[in-house]
Every structure is written in structure tokens, then in C-alpha cells.
Amino acid sequence: MNTSMNEAEQKPDAIFTVHAPGVDTEAIVREIEETVARKLEEGVYDDARVARAERSNLANLRNHDEFLEFYLKCLREAAFVDITDFEIRERRRGFAPLLVRFKKSIWNMLKFYTYRLWSQQNQANGLLVTAVENLDQKYAAKIRALEKRIRELEGDASKASND
């Protein structure tokens, strides 16, 4: 199927459209949406951020302030690396018990180093997120103050013109 600009005209709410000669882009998007819906139902996306991000995808976030607020919240929730132990599994059947023990012994030797690395990364991520949030709050307050000052000046100007 050859896509054309008429498709974009038919979907005026789309943020952007993708066109490729000889490629049914609508079918690809439909397949992705169906796969995500199926995986959501199956619980593959257990992480609440992933489910919320899909429900509130960028196409629905038209307002700049709304997008920034959502993005900062996701950033805050995703800033820290999970450094807890994890279950080591082996999918290959033959040597599974031996491979699991081998992988666990390697993990036990490297755990100290990875914990130190990820702890430092978590600290840096937390500081960066806090800095970005504080800048956002600072500039939002500054914009509110400037808008208030503009309203006051406009009020003074209208009073002066009436006199």
C-alpha cells in the first residue's frame, strides 16, 4: 500500500505521520498498538511507569506544561537503578544446574563492584533529577511573577489612559 499525504489530512490529531513508498505504515502502527495492548493484558508491562506512559503517550500530551510535568514525574521514578539481587535462571536444559551455579559464583564475585557503581550512579541520577525539578520550579515561579507584573502594569496603563 502506498501511503500519501491524504492520510495525514484524514488524521488531523496526529502529531506526525510516517510515509514510506511501498510500506503500509498504518499496518505497522496497528500491529505495534495491538502488541502493546496484548502485552498489557498479559502483565508483561508490570511496571506502572510503562503502562502509564503507554496510556499517556506523547500524542495525548499536547500541552507543554503537561508534558514537562509528566516527563519529570517519569524521570523521578526511573532515576534510580535497582541494585537488589535478582534470580539467576538458565533456559538451556542440558547443563542448567551447573550453569546457574557458575553464574551465581560470578555474580557473587562482581556484586561488590556493581553495587558501588550503581550506588554512585543512583546518587548522580538523584542529584540531576533534583536539579532539573528545582530549575523547573524556579522558572515557573519567575514566569508567574512576570505575568503578575505584566497584569499590574497593564492595569496601571489602562487607569492612566482613562484619566
Describe the fold and architecture.
There is one protein chain. The protein has 163 residues and is mainly alpha-helical. It contains 5 helices and no strands.
Shape: flat
Low-pLDDT regions: 1-10
What class would the helix/strand composition place it in?
mainly alpha
Gyration radius (Cα, Å) is 26 Å
Helix content: 55-70%
- Secondary-structure element pattern, one letter each: HHHHH
Tally of strands:
0
Overall average pLDDT:
78
Tally of separate helices: 5
Content of β-strand: under 5%
Q: Oligomeric status of the shown chains? A: single chain
Q: Could you give a short account of the major beta sheet?
A: none
Give the termini distance in whole angstroms.
69 Å
Could you list some keywords that capture this structure?
mainly alpha; 0% strand; flat; disordered N terminus
Helices, strands, pairings?
Blueprint: H1 5-10, H2 25-42, H3 48-55, H4 64-78, H5 96-162
Task: Provide a quick synopsis of the model.
With 163 residues, the protein is mainly α. It contains five helices and no strands.
